[in-house]
Automatic annotation (TrEMBL):
<dbReference type="InterPro" id="IPR003593">
    <property type="entry name" value="AAA+_ATPase"/>
</dbReference>
<dbReference type="InterPro" id="IPR003439">
    <property type="entry name" value="ABC_transporter-like_ATP-bd"/>
</dbReference>
<dbReference type="GO" id="GO:0055052">
    <property type="term" value="C:ATP-binding cassette (ABC) transporter complex, substrate-binding subunit-containing"/>
</dbReference>
<dbReference type="InterPro" id="IPR040582">
    <property type="entry name" value="OB_MalK-like"/>
</dbReference>
<dbReference type="Pfam" id="PF00005">
    <property type="entry name" value="ABC_tran"/>
</dbReference>
<dbReference type="GO" id="GO:0016887">
    <property type="term" value="F:ATP hydrolysis activity"/>
</dbReference>
<dbReference type="GO" id="GO:0005524">
    <property type="term" value="F:ATP binding"/>
</dbReference>
<protein>
    <submittedName>
        <fullName>ABC transporter ATP-binding protein</fullName>
    </submittedName>
</protein>
<keyword id="KW-1003">Cell membrane</keyword>
<dbReference type="InterPro" id="IPR008995">
    <property type="entry name" value="Mo/tungstate-bd_C_term_dom"/>
</dbReference>
<dbReference type="InterPro" id="IPR015853">
    <property type="entry name" value="ABC_transpr_FbpC"/>
</dbReference>
<dbReference type="GO" id="GO:0015408">
    <property type="term" value="F:ABC-type ferric iron transporter activity"/>
</dbReference>
<dbReference type="InterPro" id="IPR047641">
    <property type="entry name" value="ABC_transpr_MalK/UgpC-like"/>
</dbReference>
<keyword id="KW-0547">Nucleotide-binding</keyword>
<keyword id="KW-0067">ATP-binding</keyword>
<feature type="domain" description="ABC transporter">
    <location>
        <begin position="4"/>
        <end position="241"/>
    </location>
</feature>
<keyword id="KW-0813">Transport</keyword>
């Protein structure tokens, strides 16, 4: 396993010397620690696959350098980089048995037969395909084929890193949950460097030690799931992570308090040093609905099992609140903000100074 350094990586599929707009990756400068479990999270089209393919060597970046344990591998092939990659759709040999599909990458590298057998059997257990070992891959379901694909990535423990590109997309929800926790156990046991691409926050937050949030070709925040939840650096992160996402509203800062309409909101101490027009972000979990605070109207109530999402309206501003089981909505509803859930943004949802 290796530490991976991405040095000022940029990539344009169609180079345009006059404009930066065409960069699928604008600037990625970051290190993945040896043995780390990273999730690359972001909406479709933000550049996750592009970045992953640059790490694996399927794609050569337009600018920048890639280092594995300090060694420049920018110009090496995928094979030379010694990387395992699992794609969104299964890549397997249809005419081979399930067993041989897993054994192939090991035999290819000259691993002794006894070890091949041990590793393959162990991996088949893990992905719950042991009883299918001697079946031809051709006859299997899409689900099972994708598990083989996953197994082919996991069977090799000598690689510098294992890269996953939305590998559970075609897997049914229950199995998805099982495999996700398997991956976590595996990471803890073998200390693989893992980079896991997904657009699904649940997947990212359960799998990763560090979540790398991407937006429009850039990394906007890297943090633990808790950091991303409590202290999103950009309103985009607050919006994208959480369900529903963070409430964001324009406010004016005056002597340590935020003003919204005629209301004053107490800020956490020390008070935000910025003045003037900014944006206040607060997650629905930190808004209280009761008889005290700012009077609101109820726009909508959504039942989500144990909780309700109550969409309130304060003037023209919609503010979502999470309300626990059995909690009544008062006849004259008011909301109050828990100061510890308040984040202030001087520069919101604009990434890279646009
Ligand atoms: P993600 O994996 O996050 O969905 P991608 O890395 O696939 O995003 O794509 C990032 C951007 O690059 C998108 O705007 C996409 O349209 C563009 N793109 C991806 N692949 C190609 C390609 N082969 N040729 C041209 N543009 C591409
Ligand atoms: Mg992709």
């Amino acid at each position: 396993m290796a530490r991976i350094d991405l040095n000022h990586i940029r990539h344009a599929y169609v180079p345009n010397p006059k404009s930066d707009k065409d960069y699928a990756l604008k600037e990625v400068h970051h290190s993945w620690e040896d043995g780390g479990a990273y999730a690359l999270l972001g909406p479709s089209g933000c550049g996750k696959t592009t970045l992953l393919n640059i790490i694996s060597g399927l794609l050569h970046p337009s600018h920048g350098q890639l280092l594995f344990d300090g060694e420049d591998v920018t110009n090496l092939s995928t094979q030379e980089r010694n990387i395992a990659q699992v794609f969104q759709f299964p890549v397997i040999y249809d005419t081979m048995t399930v067993y041989d599909n897993l054994a192939f990458p090991l035999r290819n590298r000259g691993v002794p037969a006894a070890e091949v057998d041990r590793k393959v059997k162990e991996t088949l257990e893990m992905i719950d395909l042991a009883s299918w070992a001697n079946k031809k891959a051709r006859g299997l379901t899409a689900d099972q084929k994708q598990k083989i694909s996953l197994g082919r990535g996991l069977v090799r423990s000598d690689v510098n890193a294992i890269l996953f590109d939305e590998p559970l997309t075609v897997i049914d929800p229950h199995m998805k949950w099982v495999l996700r926790s398997q991956l976590k156990v595996l990471h803890q046991r073998f200390g693989y460097t893992m980079v896991y691409v997904t657009h699904d926050q649940t997947e990212a937050l359960t799998f990763a030690q560090k979540v790398v949030v991407m937006y429009d070709g850039e990394i906007v925040q890297i943090g633990t799931p808790e950091e991303l939840f409590e202290r999103p650096k950009h309103t985009f992160v607050g919006y994208f992570i959480g369900s529903p996402g963070m409430n964001v509203m324009p406010v004016e800062i005056e002597s340590g308090a935020a003003r919204i309409g005629e209301h004053q909101i107490q800020l956490p101490s020390p008070a935000a040093p910025i003045g003037g027009k900014v944006e206040l972000g607060i997650r629905p979990e930190y808004v209280r609905l009761g008889r005290l605070g700012m009077p609101v109207q109820i726009a909508k109530v959504e039942d989500i099992g144990r909780h309700k999402i109550v969409r309130t309206r304060l003037g023209t501003q919609e503010i979502a609140v999470i309300v626990g089981e059995g909690q009544e909505i008062p006849a004259e509803p008011h909301i109050a903000f828990d100061p510890k859930g308040i984040n202030i943004y001087a520069d919101s949802w604009r990434v890279g100074g646009n």
